[in-house]
Structures are given as structure tokens and as C-alpha cells.
Amino acid sequence: MAVRRVYVIELEAAAGRRRDQRIPWVYVGSTVRTPERRFEQHRADYKSARLVKRFALRLRPDLYEDIETLRSSKDAVRAEKGRARELAECGFVAHCDGTSYGRDVADWAEWDAERLAPVAAHVDAAAAQLTEAAFRPLSPGDCARLLHGERGFWPAEYIDPLDPPPAYGLFPHVRLSVLADRVERLAGPVSA
To answer: Measured in whole angstroms, how far is the alpha carbon of residue 147 from the centre of its chain?
Structure first.
């Protein structure tokens, strides 16, 4: 019996009006293949939803890797819809099985530390990428602002705003304070 995996694909801005310009539309699906292979199939127009075929940007493992593999297609569909609803609750418009969750909802709640914990390694990798790409040393607070894509924070003194690293603004659905705490822990103790 084949196992199924839920995956999430980030869609380009042209996919539809966003609830917050920093938080993209996403597509949530499931597959018996690897998410990477299924993403390639979507891009090649094999059994692809029209929205995904036109606007697929990249896989978002930080939004699905915490979901365990599933044994039945019913369980996979239930998990897809559950993840789409959860993503809608934190600001995404999540398209799944013909429904765009969160499209007509005005409010949402950002992820807290407990919700982030299962995929925190993605924050760690993104923080490392931003630190490496930065023009000058980043404080943990400024690194968190870059991860969050915080409004009112001008990133040009740290990164090229015309060609930002992929990690820039990747976590606007996570509380800024949670990101700052995570980056602070990664930085370790500051020596005098």
C-alpha cells in the first residue's frame, strides 16, 4: 500500500488578491509521489490544477513537513483540507480541492512558538541564509524582521531589495517575537 504525503506550493502574486501582501496564496495537495516529483508534474501540466499550472512558484516544506505520511486517500484529503484551514487561520489564502480557504476572512492569528516548533529547522536555515547574504552583520532582532518581512523596516541596509535572498519575508505568518527568540537562541550567548 502506497503512502501519501501532503505538500504545499507557494503561488505567484498574480494568483489572487492577498489578505496581507507579505503572505502568499498557496495550494495544498497530496500525492503518493515525493512532493518534489509532484511539483514537477504540476509544472509539466500533468493532472495539474489550473491555478497551480499558471502560478506555481516553489514548494514550501516549512508548511507541510510536520504532517506524517498517510495510508489512505481519505486520510490524505482530510489532512489537505485541515492544513489549508490552518494556513488560512494564520493569514494565507490556501487553495485546496476547489476551495480557497481564508479568501473572504479579514483576521488571522500568527503562529506561536509551539506551532513553529515542528518546522523550526526551516527558520534556522533561513536565518543562516539571511546572515550569510547580509551586507553587514545582522542583530537577531533585525534578522527576525527580515524573516518576518516586517512593514516599516527597510531592508536595503542589509540586503539587495531588488534581489533579496529567498529567505527574506518567508515567515510573516509567525509572530515577530517568536522569530526574534528563535534567532537569539541561534546566535548564542554574546561575549563581552
So the answer is: 11
Against a cut of 0.85, is the pTM above it? yes
For residues 43 and 108, is the Cβ–Cβ distance under 8 A? no
State the Cα–Cα distance between residues 63 and 16, nearest whole angstrom. Answer: 20
CA distance 92 to 80: 14
- Helix (H), strand (E) counts: the chain: 7, 5
Residues 119-151: tens digit of each pLDDT: 999 999 999 999 999 998 999 999 999 999 877
Backbone angles phi, psi at 92, to 5 degrees: -75, 155
DSSP 3-state assignment of 75? helix
What is the CB neighbour count within 10 angstroms for residue 81? 18
Domain ranges of the chain: 5-101, 113-187
Amino acid identity of 26? V
Q: Are 43 and 14 in contact (CB under 8 A)?
A: no
What proportion of the chain, given as a percentage, has pLDDT over 90?
Answer: 66
The amino acid occupying position 48 is: S
Give the H or E element holding residue 96. strand 93-96
Pairwise CA distance, residues 96 & 82, whole Å: 10
